[in-house]
Every structure is written in C-alpha cells, then in structure tokens.
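Can you give me the bound-state structure? Components:
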Amino acid sequence: MNRTIVLIKDTAGTGDATREAHAQWVKKLRDAGLDGTVQAVRAADLGIYNAGMAVKILPEGPCYVNVRSEDIDRIIETTLKQGTVIEELTRHTVVEQVRIVLRNCGKVDPENIDDYLGVGGYQGLSRCLFDLTPEQVIEEVKASGLRGRGGAGYPCWLKWSLARKAFGDEKYIVCNADEGDPGAYMDRSVLEGDPYAIIEGMTIIAYAVGAKKGMFYIRAEYPLAIKRIQLAIDKAYGVGLLGEKILGSEFSFDCEIRLGAGAFVCGEETALIASIEGRRGTPRPRPPYPSDYGLWGKPTVINNVETMANVSYLLLNGPGDFARMGTEKSKGTKVFALTGGVRNSGLVEIPMGTTLRSIVEGLGGGSADGKPIKAIQTGGPSGGMIPAEHFDTPVSYEHLQALGSIMGSGGMIALTENDCMVDIAKFYLGFCVDESCGKCSPCRIGGFQMLLLLEKIADGKGSQEDITSIRRLAVAMQKASLCGLGQSAPNPVLSTLQYFMKEIEEHVVEKKCRAGKCTSLLQYVINPQACKRCRLCVVNCPVNAITGDRQVGYTVGQNVCIKCGKCYEVCKFEAVDRR
Amino acid sequence: MVRATINGITVTVPEGTSILDAARKVQIRIPTLCKHPDLPATAACGICIVKIAGSNKMLRSCCTPLEQDMAVTTHDPEIVDIRRSVIELILSRHPNECLTCGRNQNCELQRLAADFGIRAESFASSVPDLPSDSSTGAIVLEPRKCISCGRCIDVCQRMQNVWALSMLERGIDTRMSPAGDIQLAESPCVHCGQCSAHCPVGAIIEHDETGIVWEQLRDKNRYCIVQIAPAVRVALGEAFGFESGALVTGKLYAALRRMGFKAVFDTNFGADVTIVEEATEFVKRFTTAPETLPLITSCCPAWVDFMEKFYPDMVSHFSSCKSPHQIVGVLAKTYFARKRRIDQASMFMVSIMPCTAKKHEVKRSKEMFASGVQDIDVSITTRELARMIKQAGIDFKNLPDEEPDHMLGEYSGAGTIFGVTGGVMEAALRTAYDYITGGKLKNVDFENVRGLSGVKEGTVQVNEHSVKVAVAHGLSNVESVLAEVRQARAEGRETPFHFIEVMACPGGCVGGGGQPYGITDETRRLRGEGLYLDDREKPIRYSHENPSVKALYAEFLKDPGGKQSHKLLHTTYKPIPEYKR
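Here's the bound-state model for the whole set.
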C-alpha cells in the first residue's frame, strides 16, 4: 500500500458514521482501480473535533474536514489521482504544528510493532545500547534541554543522574500515566496512538539510570490505553525488546502495568508510589526524593508519558533540532489539549515559544461564536487565567509562571465573554477540593472553606471581607500545604483576583453576573410589551412560577423561580428577559 | 554533626535531626498538632512551618532535617499569621464542645487555640455529622472531633501493627475509622488504647465507667473493693502536680479509702501470685518438657488479644496463668470473702489500671468468672481515677500515706516491677532461679532486660543451664521475636528463647493507654525508674517470699500449679478471627 486514508469520526455527533463511509471508500477506491495502492482505515480519535468527519491522507497528505459522502469521488479524482489539494475541504490553520510527541499518532498501527519499527522505532534504543554509555545518554538529554512534561518542568537529565548516582542496584522507572486534569487527554492519545514510543523511551531511561524494572501507572479509566500498552509490552517481549539481554546487549529490562483508581493526587510522585505499593494514595514529605528513596524504598525515576515519548525521539534524532526549538529555558515542543470557546478544538503540538495568541487564534481558529476571548486558562486546576492583554506571551515554563499560571500537563481552555470568571474559578477550585487527599489540613479544610466563600460570592451574598478571607486562605494553602496539589489549588482563584477583579466586584457589589452563569444572580422577567400571551412559558415552567392571565399578562414569581431558564428558551417572541 | 542557625541562634545537632527537634535544643518551641515524639513525622497538620533562607517556600520543621549552614526562621509575623489561619481552619471543622469533652483542659488543640488567642470563628463552622463508636466497651471513637492528624493510625499500624484504624474517604470527608468502615469491636482492635494516649484531641478516649463506680460506692449494701495496678502509683501523681515517676502509693490507698472503698488491695500482690504460678509453670516446662518452650507471658490483655488474633499458632506457648488483677479479683471473691464471711454477691470489685484493654479482659472468657460471679466488676483507668479523686474533693497532694488492707495488699519488689517492660521477666527469673537452684541469687537486678529498646535479649546462667530470654514491648516489636521462634520450629531446631515477655504498650504498663496524657520516652523512663525505686526499697524482693502469698498457699491454694490454683488462677486461649464480620 502506498497511501492510507484515515477516517476519523465526527466527535460532535453521537453515532459513528465512519463504518458506512469506510464501505463507500472501499467500493469507490476499487471502482477507481486504486484498491491495490490505497487503503482505507477507521480511527477513533486524532484530536480533531467539531469538524464533522475528518479524512486524513497519509503519508503527509492533506487533512480534510466536514467530509460528506458526495465528496468521496472528488477527493479520489482530485487529490489521489491528480495530487491536488481541495482547498475548501482543508482545515486552515495559520500556525504550523511541530509533531514530535505525536509524531507517529495516526501514522502507525499502535497494535503492530512492525509499523513502529518501520518509522525508525527502537533505533534510538539500539544506539544507546551499542554506541552510548549511560552517561552519554544523560549528556544528550542534557544538551537537548528536555524538562519533565508532567507540569513542574524539572530537568530530566538532573533527575536521572541523581537516580543513577543513588546507592543500590535495584532501581525503578515509573511512567506516570495518571493524567487527570479536567479536559486533558494528551497522554491518553499517545498511549493509545504510539505505545512503543513510550516503552522505548522508558527503556532508554532505564538504561541511563541503571534500572531493571519499569512500571506503567495508568488510570483505570483509560481501558484502550491499558490494552494497547499491554499488547505493546507483550509484543516487545516477544521480539526481545524487553526482558533479558535486550537486542543481544548486556542490558535487561522488565516492564509491567499498575492501574490507578483515578485519584488526581496520585499524579503526585510520592502519592503515586504509595498507590503502587498498595497503600492509601497520599503524598509524604520530601526529602527524601524518589530519586533516592522511591518505590519500595529504592531509587526511582518518575516521568510522564509525554516526556518518555520525547526521549525516544531525542535518542533517535539527536538533541540538535530539539534544543534549537523554544525559549532559553524551555526547549522542544509541548502538546496542548485546546478547548473552550475556540472554533477548532483538539490536540495541538507546538514549539515552545509560540505565543498564546497564535495557538488560540491560529490553531484554534479564534472564538467560535464571535464573542471575544477574554482569557486563556492553562495548567489545569493548578494553573491560572491569563487575560487577553497577555496573549502575546510565548508559551514556556517561565513565562507562564511569571503570569501566575503554569504550563502544567497541557490543558488549554479559551474563555470568552460567555464565561463567568467566578464560575470558572469555582469549577477549578471545586476540582481540587474533590481531589484533595485529605491528609494535610491547609489543603483539606482551606480549599473547602475557600470554595464556600466563592459560592457565597456567586450566590450574590459575598462581601469585601470574603475577598480578604480568600486571599488569606490562599496564602495559608500555598505556604502550608504538603504537596503541589494544595500549594497550587488557589492559583486559578488568585489569578482571577489578579486579572478579573472587576468581574468579582460586580458579583459582590452590584450582585450581577455579566455572563449569566451564576444563576442566583439572574432574574427572568417577562416583558409585557413583547409578550403575546401564548402561555408557552407558563406550560413549560417546572415549578409553576409564572402566573397571570391573558388580560393582565404574565409575571415570573421571583420567590418561586429556580432560574432554570426554560421560559427564556421556549419563548418564541423574545419576551423573556434575562437580567 | 551539622551546624546551622535557628532565629540567629547557632545550633549543632547530629545529622538527620529535624528542625523541630533542633529548635527545642535552643529553647524554641515550634507548635505542632500532628508530630508526636513517639511517631515518625506525618506532616499532616501544617502548623510547624518555618522559613529557610534562600527558599521562598515554607517547609514543615517536623520532617525537614536541619542542614549545614541553614538559616532557619521559626517565628515571624507571616509565619505566625499562617499558623493562625491553619489553626482557625482546623477549628472550623472541630465541634465547639470543649466544656463537655473528655479532653477539656488537656487538649493540644485547645491549648494552641488559647496560645494563639483565637477569639472568633473566622470561617464557617462545618462539623461532620459522624456517630461515635463505643462498641468495644474499652475505647470510644468520636470521629466528629477528629482533626485527621493521623497519629492514631500511625500508632495502630506502625507502633502496634494491629491495623484496626485507617483513614477513609478523601478531601474534606476524610475521616478516621476502623478499616472497612465497621465497628471497632468487629475490627482487629486489641484495645491497647495507645490511640487514645496519642490523640491530640478528644476524638479517641477511654470508655468512662466512673459513673458505675460512684453508684456502687454510694450503695450502702455494697462491699466495694479496689485494687491498684503497679504502674498507676508512678503516674497518677502527674494529675496532681507531682513529677512523672513520683511514687504516690500511700496517698493512693488513702484516697481510695476516703472515696468509700471498704477494702483497698494491691494488684502487686496478684503479681506476686502470678510469678509463683508462672515460675512454677516455667520450671516445669524447662525441666520436664523443653519442647513446650518458649513460655510466653500472658499478663497483658492487649497482647493476649493480639496473640489470639494474629499468632494463633503460639497458643500452646502462652502461660495459662491469669493476669494479676484477675487473680486479686478471684481471690477477693473467694479466699477473702470466705475468711471475712462477706457475702460474695454483695461484693463489688474495681481495678484501677493504666490500661484500656483491662476493660475488655474482665469479660473476655468464662474463666474470668471463676469465683462464680464476675471476678472484676469494673476496671477503670488511671485517668478516670484522677477525675474521681478530684470529684470527691480530696486534696491528693497533701494526703497522709496509708497502708493497703491485709490479705491481698502486701507486695514484694518483684511484684511492683510488673508495670515496666522487662519487669515480669525479671520477677519470674528471680523466683525461677530460686526454684531451680534452691539458692539465692547474688544480684537480683537483671539489667539486660531493663530499658526502652524495643527488643531486649539476654541469657541467664542457672546452674548448668543457659536460660535464653527475650523481652518485647510495643506490639510491632513482637514480630521479629516470634518469627525466630517460628523459623526454629519449622526447621526443627531448638527454640532460640526459653522465656519471652511481651507488653503491648511501649515501655510496658507505665506507658499504658489509660495513663495520664503526655506520654513520651522520658515519661516512660521516669515512671519506670519510680517502679525500680519501689522495688529496691522493698525489704522482700522475691514474689514467693511475700508472707501474704505464703499464707495464701498455706491456707487456701495449697500447691503452686495445683488443682485449686488451676481452677481459680489459670485460663485458656483460643484462636479468634481478626475480623468479626
């Protein structure tokens, strides 16, 4: 087969139309006499959303979106036969993605090791085992400037060399696949799409560190990822890429999967270790760091999925290109799960240093509904809101931190005028309150109390003193919490206070929510001039809050109204005002 | 050694010393609610935070080792303010029930709130609605009051290796509970009460039975008898302004008489009887049936419970002899009752113990009813007795010393050291040596079984025999000793020990779960020294030479280990499941 047509289902719909489309493609390719050279396959998810059925032509062909069955002939004729790109079906992005982590996703069959070997897979490991000493491997990664992609951005080479120097023969490598940020699925996509790249990366780290045993810590909510990693492990064992004397070298490495039960805090290194060991997943004080005292008390390196996928790339291609990309302290690329109020949401991989604006406007296609994007949330529940005036900031660990946010694992949400900042802050804080392990009191109770105060503000019962209390709690949580979860949980709230104080004050002083998200502050009022007395609202109101008759007109009883907005939705004459 | 400064004061401490401990060396107290000297730092409360020059973070001093040239600040306006915030947060989840709480005036959170001068509730109070658990009749869990410091769980899991308690749920719903969310009585709990001794607040307390005792004391038709355990006499004073370890035996007898007890006995007498029985049992096994060795002591009820649950294969090695207070109980209701012609049914026996497990022991099996009725009616802890003495309006500190009542009150030096780890072993060796050799020991002090190290081993030369002994205290220390025994048994080798003493609580009964609050190794040491002093000052230091014991055997029991003894003074053990559900 020379070319492959990948059909990607429309994520907006509930059904999967790729089954029928696939049959059509197969038939039409045969009719066109191309069935010997072009194959059609179905894929689950390549990170293209809200764009109908997407069709990707590999290798390196165009990617068409919103493809309907009547377009098939045209694509076969124009693109496959004549080699011309059909402009109107192409998804236009201004900014170029650079795919390192996602390099093979969608290109290789993740269940076929030969596919991975065919794109240069395991050549990096082979180079390590036969041409490089462990120290040289660490040196190469040091030269690349790779920092951990889990969130904090700790330099990989440093973590590895600490573990390498740590005392003892028994050492462990753990792949942190406990991705848990709301809306984030970068790691899942790589686990599902390119499992061998991660296993190879892990094996290289093991060689560099001197570990003989590796663990995948994958959350149980990722069944396909678990299946594919397990399959990949089995196949790698089968061809001598795992186990005793890998590729005939003196290096041996074993690898297995441990499932996480989906606690966010188990992404924290020491809690993750506790979870693997079968204990309650709570962090412990550091030092000692896992590089000295980790899994079962042995030196342990924990890297996340994206980091490991980078490692296998680096050792194949050398550090040069990678190190040339990015800012002074942040090198290479970063994968983001771009979502929110943008036109094109999905996974994007961009070189470090790309501005937020080019991601949101260039790749995201700007606001979906035309309302201006007022903020970008990065870093998930540990990150912050970055307002529009800072959209030209380049994406890097240090730049985002300077703005009160963090890189995090790669969540990126565009917030428009439709979003209420109090509501968003409440959402993120609520996530951390739910996910707090409950061990240390500043996080356990501080987050809970802060959430109560935010809810008070959203309910229109807040005061200036509550804002003062929130600031005081934030300091206590940041300074006195044991682990990163509690220390960073106030970040979304603090950055909202920093950049969107006006919106908060509207809630507190004017008792108004401009986005209409804080339902307690809303009022639904029937405009007597516009009302045609059709009674549709009366019939639809679930709590019988609307009273009156055809003569005097209808009014919403504010004491009874539960602000569900049903009257507002059903009114055909725009006679219900939402204030 | 590392040298650093704390608040500008130079301090030199061994490597690995925490900042919290190092600060104490230079008279700086960093507040904490979760760190206890007995336990590793869990870093839960977040109050002991300090600043270190060069870092913009605040670190927990409990778990951060002092490093060379570190410059630590423990108190500044920002740190104190954050500590205050954290204390206020903890208070927002804690009921405002100080006046009716078992820890009123003795609560670490209350003290901290007072020190910080907290005068208002800054945050909305939200106390969880959780039921209390008094299913064991020994320990009461009040999870509403729990501040989730994790001490009890570390005590239960690490110190005692029982694993009855755990944390359930997460986030704001995190709560201390028996693992699996069952009742404590259905859990592996052995009632040692160390959780209650380490809880900083009133979330785990002893089951209070003072009301029953007062009721009986006020009943004119009741003949109330009391006995006090060895370790009570060196700890009760702490509740009345004495130093730890101060011997207040005489005042204790006096106070009990004033409270209305008609006979005041001493558990130490029972200890002497225990030794006579147990030494007899040991000599018999040692000389005639060495394959039944080791003999393992059984006077600690928490240990008995632990063995029945976790080491059922050791049942045959247990001394069948009852614990001293049960012996005094049964003898009071038989020997004493008959001799004084007191109606057994009118008798009410109270034992004052340093222990919560004794509350469970009094009903643990049918042998505890050997007199025909329940031998010990109620067992109360040292803490409960301290409250009763205060309620009775007794000026304890200035009481004149009194003597115990005759028949079951006199004791030897060997009896009194039952209350400290190694004491039972030492007392038994004194008598056993005498029984085997027929001649007196030159030196009655067995120094190598004394002290606070977790497992103590030694060899005693008795004629041509080497008697190998081991002493363990704190249930987590038992494992290694019994593992050696098991391994030798599996390999068909001779047992590594002939005699093993186990006390569930670290330090033995002096560190019992029912003792006055504030247990540390220092209090254990001082209380232990108090008992060794009591021993040294006794004219008689062998249990079998106690004249009252001799009279007991002559008049009532006849032979040690005889038929009557077995009926009244011995018990049985059986494996019991760890979980009752």
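A couple of observations. Chain B touches chain A through 38 residues (CB under 8 Å). Chain B has three domains: 2-90, 106-117+131-206, 212-569.
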